[in-house]
Design goal:
This protein is of the alpha+beta class. It is 35% helix and 21% strand. It has 4 helices and 7 strands; from the N terminus they run αββαβαββαββ. The strands form 3 sheets. Strands 3-7-6 form a 3-stranded mixed β-sheet, sandwiched between helices.
């Protein structure tokens, strides 16, 4: 039985949020993942790219993760956007920046799962 990609992703996120079965101690050299204070998009300013490339770029520079269905992925790849001249976005403004860019291309996003995973689900805008 095949589960839709979104359902499978949400199932995985739910499993990640479950407490461990046995106590575990953190690795000595690990540091907690953190969102950078400022997200630098300068190398991409004014550039036109597919929406899926935009999401990959955002994932690389921000540490946020994006998930979407296969059908949405095809639509993301077929749609494009141009990044504005604004090259730096603060972490607190990132969600708004992301929503504006995606909305202009016909998509919406929403945060899902535990905060520490920093996951957004991207979907086609229905209205």
């Amino acid at each position: 039985m095949k589960l839709p990609a979104l359902a499978l992703s949400l199932l995985c996120l739910a499993a990640c949020g479950a407490p461990p079965r046995a106590p575990s101690k953190p690795a000595s050299n690990s540091t907690p993942a953190s969102i950078p204070g400022e997200i630098d998009l300068e190398p991409y300013a004014g550039r036109e790219m597919s929406v899926v490339d935009f999401l990959h770029t955002c994932q690389q520079v921000s540490g946020f993760n994006f998930t979407y269905t296969e059908a949405t992925g095809e639509a993301l790849n077929a749609s494009s956007l141009r990044l504005p001249a604004t090259t730096h976005v603060t972490a607190s403004e990132f969600q708004q920046y992301l929503e504006v860019r995606l909305s202009a291309a016909g998509f919406v996003c929403r945060r899902v799962g535990p905060e520490n995973l920093r996951v957004y689900v991207v979907e086609r805008r229905t209205t």
